[in-house]
């Protein structure tokens, strides 16, 4: 499990550079390497008590969060590229489900999810898409709002695994709905010690992923309608 | 009546005229050889990234076009939304083509054929020249593949300005390179003449 996670995190999987089945074939050596991989990863599975405590902390924080503003950097990883595609911008969220993603670099593009409509501003070209009645979109919108606030611990929708990762909490959410898992096979969300979302990684079935890292987060500052206007 | 008949005949003759004739291309001596005509996706060390805007029957779509040259005549072409969701991911190796991924909703033969044709043409670097023409100061190379003809317009300085895909008589698809910086095409316009589809690409 750990080695698998390690691979999904986009770092090279640990490789054994000599044949185990010959000279170094003892089980002790294998145990050493598994242990080494686990330590190198800094990632251990949470106990049930720890995962329940994390859920409670994140839910309580989400319930008390009315607004969030944050900067973000997005890394799009495609295996065949030499470098990840980096973009950055600002995020605004107002409970229960208004979200604005504003990309500033390297292109000006913003998207607002509001009142069953998707408002797009593409370098000044504005358009909207009415998505009322589109169940998949409703769920996507809910999911985006939930993943920003962190409160997506829904066992009906996801299989979940909980890890302690270098002092942070890491949760893997695997969508159960095949319609969803066609796009995203797993969300990996990293929470800081306060229960705030620091990183969201969306992994596609091919292994390519989108990583969003949040910074400069401010909560419960007043956000007017103008923040969500396009 | 005679005038009407002559007009119809003239129209028919003109309608059947070949693409070079219709477009006033003057025949020039031709060396039938393989040549690199499109250098804009030829650097394996580069990740090519474009902001893409598509207009299909007045509907607008946008996203990112990502191109990587992986070897001789081997390109990978992917399209994602600005937010990062992958829409399609294609491989072109010589004349071979493979869909690595495409959204279920777009997994239709006409769409796949269109992607194969347009991006296959855009990625193709080397072609065998069949005929050479001139137009003002431009040199126009005619190439042929799978019963279609292609015309590569190169400026006096040898920069590729335009590619036209034509059937026997008229243009079906035009690719323009209005802004070029060395061997990097900063802007690309893919314009279909047979359907209302335009793809605008801007390097980022």
TrEMBL record, chain A:
SUPFAM superfamilies: Prokaryotic lipoproteins and lipoprotein localization factors (SSF89392). Keywords: Lipoprotein, Signal. CDD domains: LolA. The keyword Signal applies. Gene3D superfamilies: Lipoprotein localisation LolA/LolB/LppX. InterPro entries: LolA/LolB/LppX, OM_lipoprot_carrier_LolA-like. Coiled coil: none annotated. The keyword Lipoprotein applies. This is Outer membrane lipoprotein carrier protein.
UniProtKB/TrEMBL annotation, chain B:
This is DUF4292 domain-containing protein. It comes from Pseudozobellia thermophila.
């Amino acid at each position: 499990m750990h080695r698998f996670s390690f691979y999904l995190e986009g770092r090279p999987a640990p490789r054994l550079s000599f044949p185990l089945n010959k000279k170094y074939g003892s089980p002790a050596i294998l145990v050493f390497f598994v242990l080494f991989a686990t330590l190198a990863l800094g990632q251990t599975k949470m106990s049930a008590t720890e995962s329940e405590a994390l859920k409670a902390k994140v839910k309580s924080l989400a319930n008390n969060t009315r607004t969030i503003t944050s900067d973000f950097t997005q890394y799009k990883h495609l295996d065949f590229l030499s470098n990840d595609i980096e973009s950055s911008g600002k995020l605004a969220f107002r409970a229960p489900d208004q979200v604005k993603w504003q990309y500033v670099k390297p292109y000006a593009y913003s998207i607002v999810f509001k009142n069953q409509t998707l408002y797009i501003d593409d370098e000044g070209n504005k358009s909207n898409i009415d998505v009322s009645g589109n169940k998949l979109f409703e769920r996507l919108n809910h999911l985006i709002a939930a993943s920003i606030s962190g409160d997506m611990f829904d066992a009906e929708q996801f299989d979940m695994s909980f890890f302690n990762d270098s002092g942070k909490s890491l949760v893997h959410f695997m969508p159960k709905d095949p319609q969803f898992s066609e796009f995203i096979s797993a969300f990996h969300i990293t929470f800081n010690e306060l229960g705030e979302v620091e990183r969201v990684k969306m992994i596609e079935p091919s292994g390519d992923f989108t990583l969003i890292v949040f910074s400069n987060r401010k909560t419960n500052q007043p956000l007017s309608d103008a923040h969500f206007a396009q | 009546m005679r005038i009407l008949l002559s007009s119809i005949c003239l129209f028919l003759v003109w309608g059947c005229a070949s693409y070079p004739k219709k477009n006033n291309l003057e025949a020039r001596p031709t060396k039938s050889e393989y040549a690199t005509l499109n250098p804009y996706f030829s650097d394996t060390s580069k990740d090519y990234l474009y902001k893409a805007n598509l207009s299909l029957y007045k509907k607008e779509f946008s996203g990112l076009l990502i191109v990587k040259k992986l070897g001789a005549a081997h390109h990978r072409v992917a399209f994602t939304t600005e937010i990062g969701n992958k829409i399609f991911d294609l491989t072109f190796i010589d004349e071979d083509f493979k869909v690595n991924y495409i959204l279920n909703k777009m997994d239709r033969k006409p769409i796949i054929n269109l992607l194969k044709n347009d991006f296959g043409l855009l990625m193709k670097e080397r072609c065998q020249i069949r005929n050479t023409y001139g137009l003002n100061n431009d040199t126009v190379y005619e190439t042929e593949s799978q019963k279609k003809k292609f015309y590569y317009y190169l400026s006096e300085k040898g920069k590729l300005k335009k590619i036209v895909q034509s059937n026997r008589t008229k243009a079906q698809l035009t690719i323009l390179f209005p802004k070029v910086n060395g061997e990097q095409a900063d802007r690309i316009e893919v314009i279909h003449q047979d359907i209302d589809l335009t793809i605008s690409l801007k390097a980022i």
